[in-house]
Amino acid sequence: MKTNTNTVPRAAKGTPTNLNLWVLKKFFAGADVAANRIDSVSVASMRRCLKAGLVTVTDGGKTLTLTDAGRAAIAGVQ
User: Fold this and answer.
1) Domain 18-75 falls in which CATH fold?
2) Going by fewer Cβ within 10 Å, which terminus of the chain is more open, N or C?
3) Closest of 60, 58, 75 to residue 24, by C-alpha
4) Does 61 score more than 80 pLDDT?
5) pTM recorded for the entire structure
6) Where are the domains of the chain?
């Protein structure tokens, strides 16, 4: 049986990682609302941010809106 040699602790399920927050910051790029057009490599990160309540789906699914928690979360991301 193969043993896991990964020593990096994993984020709790539904908790955004630093990579997820970086993607979120790049996606919104200073705006509070963005079109719901996510490239395929960013879908998992945006889904995690959505589940964490950092963004909400608005305008019938056409746009994503950054929540107050989302603005606070990306404030410290470089």
Assistant:
1) Arc Repressor Mutant, subunit A (1.10.10)
2) N
3) 75
4) yes
5) 0.77
6) 18-75
